[in-house]
Specification:
With about 350 residues, the chain is α+β, with helices and mostly antiparallel strands. It has a single domain, classed as Glutamine Phosphoribosylpyrophosphate, subunit 1, domain 1 (4-Layer Sandwich), CATH 3.60.20. Helices cover about 30% and strands about 20% of the residues. The strands form 2 sheets. It has an 8-stranded mixed sheet with strand order 4-3-2-6-5-1-11-12. The chain has a 5-stranded mixed sheet with strand order 7-8-9-10-13, with helices on one face. Helix 2 packs antiparallel against helix 3 and helix 8 packs across helix 9. It starts with a helix and ends in a 5-residue tail after the last strand.
Amino acid sequence: MNDKISKFWTRRRFLETAAAAGGAMIAAPRQLAAAQPAATPPGRRPLIIASANGVACTARAMERIAAGDDPLDAAIAGVNLVEDDPNDNSVGLGGLPNEDGVVELDASVMHGPSHKAGAVAALRNIRNPSCVARLVMQRTNHVLLVGEGALRFARAHGFKEVDLLTDEARREWLKWKESHSDKDAWIAPEQAGGKPSARAGTPYEHTWGTIHCSAVDEKGNLGGVTTTSGLSYKIPGRVGDSPIIGAGLYVDNAVGAAGSTGFGEANLRNCSTFLIVELMRGGMGPREACLEALRRIADRTEPRHRGKGGLPINSVTFYAITKDGRYAGASMYSGARFAICDHRGARQEDCAWLFERKPD
């Protein structure tokens, strides 16, 4: 980090601290609680980090690294477990569909040693978008393929089309169709006794679901992948942060890697994972860098996405590792967890957090 940038960050953090102490915060109030996870100790490699649904993913990736695999290949092998799981309705097979009942998948990969990246968005009928994203990186001069073009590319490389909408996901979609509005022709089935089901007074709750995984091997080489079915019941063609390099995923082999899950539009507006890696390049630890990215999002959240006390109503969680094996997960609100696998095995740990509880 050059002197000008260093002075800028020092001044900015000083002003934020002074404003907080004087009760003059312009945006959402910050209430960082004292009972946070301790700062991460000096690192140890190899290391795998993932979102909370990735404990088995981190174990698989560690096995592959131990067998000599490249860290990106290891991370992709890990997330394939979740992409192939019909019971995880946030990724791959079984993912919740768009508002038309069609599952559209997004994924990105980034390889530290080569600094190459690949991604696909709004991909239909292919259960492992992470593998297609890797081929975009390896076999084209492009970074991102979308929609029908991404599907044709996958077919050309032998991927078989499958129906990604499982019976469980279809039932959830139909519940949403039946309850998300009182001004359309969809009605819920009758309850026992023949009485019509009551309409929901508010829109059916949307979900964000994703898995991120980053790996660093014994030599300090990095790789990362983020894969998702995106926002449930989204407008067809909606693309979140997961397939966007610098938003849902960023890897720099000289520094570290970062990934995200949660409200993708917030990351798209703030280039959050690129920011996290750059903050780590400037000397911040992974925990502090993730929290700073969350502060940026909280400060810049538009009024319609704020709840009680001015706090953001949408949550984001970040996962970061450094080249030397330090790591952290951090979320907008307390209670989130992340997956980690190192010499002590695969497990979940608590995320650091910016605010103690989400507003009602």
